[in-house]
Amino acid sequence: MPRSSSPRFAPLFFAFLGSVGSIVFASDRGALSGVVRTAGGSPVPQVVLHVKGPAAERTAVTGPDGGFHLAGLEPGDYALALDAPGFLLSPSAPAPVRADQATALDLTLLPAPVREHVVVSATRSEATTSSLGTTVAVLEGPRIAEREASSFLNLMQDVPGVSAARTGGVGAQGTVFLRGGASNFARVLVDGVPVNEPGGAWNFGPQPPFELERVEVVKGAASSLYSTDALAGVIHLATRRPAPGEPTSLRGEAEAGSFAWQRYGAGTSGRRGAIDWNLGLQRLDTDNEGPNSGFRATSGALSTGASVSPRSRLRLLMRADRSRLGTPGPTAYGRPDRDASYDVTGVVAGLSFRHAGPRLAHEARVGWAASDQLSRNPLDSGSFLPRAGDQAAAFPYADFPDPLGFQNDTRRLSVGYQADVRADAGNLLSAGVDLEHESGELGSRSESLLSPTRTNVGAYLQDRLSVGRLFVTAGARLERNDSFGTKAVPRLALAYRARGGADGTTLRASAGTGIKEPDFFQSFGTASYALGNPDLEPERSRTFDVGIEQRLFRGRARADVTYFDHDYRDQIAYQYDFATGRGTYVNLGQTRGRGLEVALAASPTARLSLSAEYTYLDGEVRVSTNDFDPVYAEGQPLLRRPKHQGSLSARYGNERFSAGATLVSVGERTDSDFVGIGLLRNDPYRRLDARVHGRLVGGLSAYVVAENLLDRRYQEVLGYPALGRSLRVGLRFQSREAGRP
Q1: Which CATH code is given to the segment(s) 235-372+404-738?
Q2: Residues 517-530: pLDDT tens digits?
Q3: Which CATH class is domain 27-111?
Q4: Which of 17, 156, 159, 738 is the most exposed place for a label (fewest CB within 10 A)?
């Protein structure tokens, strides 16, 4: 009996010894944990870290709070490598791991010579662009400041896939076309708050490039996250926030130049304990060029936050703009209107609360956007016969005075909640709900105003998954809209790291669908000549793109090429019935935008940076929405969207002196004079902008800016001459306590 029992218990005995040995061995091991943040202090989830030490390589993926944890590590020094080719980690020194101890690290993402970006709007939480299959372009604060653009629209011309057009000088009506979409096909966010008018319209003309930390342009349908308006993509403007550790600072600037240009600004920013703030004010006056084209604007921006706890933060953001613009009309064809004007008052406010833990993060937000626009034309300036060279219209152009003006006062209240859950290593699930209430007072003030309201509710689900070198983002949204009912919109994006390291290669692809609600007049209009249609379907889009990013020369150069194909369907058109003498709106139009985007960037030395962007757009009207104007006929190129557009920028300098230049080239495009002359093409143009900055003494610096340096004469929109050469000189003061050079 004893001899037979020994073999039976021997395996159990050795298993017991092995388990005890493993416990003893594990007790000699250590752990490594930490948090990955941006240079601005925001934690970054879904960052892949490769940890190399005495044993085999381990991989960690950060959670909703940007944190990671690796246990059971053999004692020794461990090197951390980031799976994002456009970033470096700080500190970069190996991390020591000791037995029976946990080593904690606070890691910061620093830009490589040609930087990558951390964006928010592509996934509604922080994400590195190399982990996104979605195409995103970013203009960061230093580039915006160095550009010294007189208008926000000038910045947009540096973004591939984006074209912009403006009816005259600074402050004039300005539109942005994203990948061949119409001017109301992009969701516009200011600090996360949706600001589009109901129906998607947004006038970029009065928007100054003021107190901006960055601008994110997400390309491709994004209704799976943002509901209506995001047929072609998202444009997100983020207000500047103070950097971590930035003490209290004061700043001021004064600028003067051509066309009676005067601009003054002042601000303060800093951190005190748990509170941070940034406040800026600005006043701009210019006569532009020509009679009754002056622009006057006052702007303010506030961003302030408070740490409620180590994991919880409350943030308040506010922006306000008030402007008046003279609107002389299409002066290239005849006399100016000397009394017409356009007043705009805009307010955006947002409050958010976020609590982030290692496995779960919550964010609640509320936003308010109001835009009060009033077009006045009190006097009859008389008629004239439009002329362009030796061509003349067949009929006179008449003025239509409206003494009380036309009002377009719209408001949008938005409330939302989002939860980010780390399901397992490499898998981040986001779920959220949004409610938006839209209202307005619209129409001629000499008549009864239209006072519609609309409430929309949506719920979305998104999964961000990393498997080795593959990054997947998949999501869908269910939207209940007061005008068109309930619709579902999905999106899928893939990014594959074909080769890592400083000279990494990333392949990406994305596909999605978008929806856009009708505007208030299309749904609720009461005029007999334009009766609203309550049965309108949403305008829709189906978008697809595929691209490759290649980094070269040990990270000092980057080439990015993207092919896109966007199909815009069920576009709403006005239809007039001659038999009944009534007009209404129907889902009729279809257009297509497909083409190629190329973005190149290089930093050969620490002082020299170069960038180039090019867009080829094959845009076409597939089903016409207008039977009266040949510019909208089937088969025609899309209105005011050039087939070829590009820019080339260079900057050289250091902390004390810098010089830069940008050449913008816009090709021929379809347009219309809309006054009966019959012009259907707008000529190409090139504009050269240049600037020089120099530090004088202490925190005082001076700069000189030239826009349209070669004094080219052109029209971004037919009939509205663009500004000629302008020169501006400015002084800027930044208190040295800001910690900036």
Answers
A1: 2.40.170.20
A2: 999 999 999 887 88
A3: mainly beta
A4: 17
